[in-house]
Design a protein that fits this description.
With 430 residues, this protein is an alpha+beta fold. Helices cover 47% and strands 12% of the residues. It is built from 18 helices and 14 strands. It has a 5-stranded mixed β-sheet with strand order 2-1-3-14-6, sandwiched between helices. Strands 11-8-12 form a 3-stranded antiparallel β-sheet. The chain has a two-stranded antiparallel ribbon with strand order 4-5. Keywords: Signal. It holds the Pfam family SBP_bac_1. This is Carbohydrate ABC transporter substrate-binding protein. It comes from Candidatus Limivivens intestinipullorum.
């Protein structure tokens, strides 16, 4: 029997088993909701805990919690076969794509009938889940780009970090840390913040990465600065060798060079993340290591800085129980008990009542995140860019590929910039 045939039989058996389980649940009167998310082990554990709490408080509701480090490829595959889970974690980058492809439920009716209570949510925050005339997602929390760094290491080396570093100041720190400690720098190549760092640098120059369905820049020259940072880091020796990432899952906190590695040669003094990930990074750090946070560097950080929805929760059009899914989203948004478990791991809660209620239960790291949002970023920021266009995922895949080729010395910064502009423009126009 051919391998393909065997694979199809196995897949059929798995699907049959899943359908059988669902059928049994329906026969007993239970409703099983599938929930899909990405993130750290800390998020995994806390999310599973609140689902267990909800099930206990709501007899007849059970959950199939699904956590994935390879989230977006898996979700794309599920959406293509119209087998998406009931509730999916959604990102600002992809919300337009999924909504315009009719894969998400418009939540407006659930807002209007009170199923999802948004009376204590800022309208600006609520509107981040809008695409066209519909509201397709509810924000989980607010966060901001943040450079996480090993404060213990830098204190021992006598190196101080200040907020709102310019790009030149940051590069000087990269060189100084490498010279004094041997620890290298891991730029945004390590995760989804690669695209965020590019947009952040452009914002500091008064430009936007996208303008509608096109690039918002005039030429490939506008992309050179981004790729030049990687090129310089490799040439001067202070950037982590790209081979270090080969056996790691990029974007996974526990495998980040900031907290994982056997020697300074394979470790970094910093990592490009978002503010809500400080807690998970600190939990993954070796004992005795203090992880701190500051702003991304750019030519003008005060203009580059922005507040953004950390993630959203959406209901898929494949859900057979959208009403129950909406009630779960309301629980996550408005339950103080629920958020005393989550404790802002996905970002500062969007309900002002919930945010205030959980403050006294926050750990010092969690309080640091709130302080960072309120005192460091909010007074020194501008409006977040609009959601990325429909075909942006192809552009971001290209961006990662070109970044890797620059790190391996296969392309110059100028060549990578030109390819991103030319090929990316073609993707956006298709």
């Amino acid at each position: 029997m051919k391998k393909k045939t065997i694979a199809m039989l196995l897949l059929s058996a798995m699907l049959a088993g899943a359908l059988g389980t669902a059928a049994c649940a329906e026969e007993t009167g239970d409703i099983q909701l599938s929930v899909f998310w990405w993130g750290s082990q800390t998020r995994n554990e806390r999310t599973q805990q609140i689902l267990d709490m909800y099930a206990e408080e709501n007899p007849g509701i059970t959950f199939d919690g699904q956590f994935s480090a390879d989230y977006w490829p898996r979700l794309a595959t599920l959406s293509a076969g119209h087998m998406m889970p009931d509730v999916v974690q959604m990102d600002y980058t992809y919300i337009t794509q999924y909504a315009e492809n009719n894969l998400l439920v418009d939540l407006t009716p659930y807002i209007e009938d009170g199923t999802i209570d948004v009376s204590n949510v800022s309208e600006d925050i609520l509107n981040t889940g809008k695409v066209g005339d519909g509201l397709y997602a509810i924000c989980n929390g607010i966060n901001a780009p943040s450079l996480l760094y090993n404060k213990t290491l830098l204190d021992e080396a006598g190196i101080e970090i200040h907020d709102q570093m310019t790009l030149d100041e940051f590069l000087d720190v990269c060189r100084e840390v490498y010279e004094k400690t041997g620890y290298k720098t891991s730029l945004s190549y390590g995760g989804n913040t690669n695209r965020d760092f590019l947009a952040y640098l452009l914002r500091g120059q008064g430009k936007e990465l996208f303008n509608g369905e096109e690039f918002g820049v005039e030429s490939a020259e506008d992309f050179v600065q981004f790729f030049s940072i990687f090129e310089t880091g490799i040439q001067e020796g202070w950037h982590v060798d790209p081979s270090t990432y080969v056996e790691r899952t990029r974007g996974q906190v526990e495998q980040d060079c900031l907290v994982y590695g056997s020697s300074p040669e394979t470790m970094s003094w910093c990592g490009f993340y978002h503010s809500n990930q400080l807690v998970a990074m600190q939990a993954a750090a070796p004992e005795g290591t203090d992880i701190a946070m500051t702003t991304f560097p750019s030519d003008n950080p005060q203009v580059s800085n922005y507040l953004k929805p950390s993630q959203f929760f959406s209901i898929s059009v494949d859900s057979e129980h959208p009403d129950e899914a909406a009630k779960l989203i309301d629980y996550i948004t408005n339950s103080v008990e629920c958020n005393n478990v989550l404790l802002g791991e996905r970002g500062v809660p969007i309900s002002s009542v919930v945010s205030e209620a959980i403050t006294e239960n926050l750990t010092p790291d969690e309080q640091e995140v709130v302080t960072y949002i309120n005192d460091v970023v909010t007074p020194n920021s501008t409006q977040v860019d609009p959601p990325t266009p429909t075909n942006s995922s192809e552009v971001f895949t290209l961006l990662d590929t070109l970044t890797e080729q620059v790190l391996y010395g296969q392309l110059s910064a100028e060549e990578a910039a030109q390819q991103l502009y030319d090929q990316g423009s073609a993707y956006l126009a298709s």
